[in-house]
Amino acid sequence: MATFPPGFVARPAVTADIPAVARLEADVFVDPWPAHLYLQEVEQPLRYQRVVMNDSRAVVAYLFACWQVDELHVLKVATHPLFEGRGLATALMEEARAEALRGNARGLFLEVRPSNRRAVRLYQAIGYRVIGRRPGYYTNGEDALVMFFDLSRPAESA
Length: 158
Prior knowledge:
Blueprint: E1 9-12, H1 18-28, H2 35-41, E2 47-53, E3 59-68, E4 71-79, H3 88-102, E5 107-112, H4 117-125, E6 129-134, E7 144-150, H5 154-157
Parallel strand pairs: 4-5
Antiparallel strand pairs: 1-2, 2-3, 3-4, 5-7, 6-7
């Protein structure tokens, strides 16, 4: 289990969290998912999601992922701008890695905008490597970097 800073707790997402997740999504991403996509993810099989709550019980970060054969695909991870730099995203990514290990995954992957340098640096710092590019992946035509965390070589990836 990942360690979250004092005053923060992570738990599985539930339907009641979706309005807060959607608001945070709209604050953080230029092309946010609509709330109905998050509703489709919650409590479905082969899904993994976590929300992070602060002392005020507000959703301040989240991670949504899905299983694709023998890999865990991180679909979305975000932290409220007021809570960035506290290790919440790192802890969420650690929890996703633990879930992948429990499920005997060969690895985790995600897509990220090359222009999101902060996220790219975070993912590289925790062991992800760029394995490809998806041209025109985002709605504005920006490519996506495809990043992978290889669980078959934990000594090299950790």
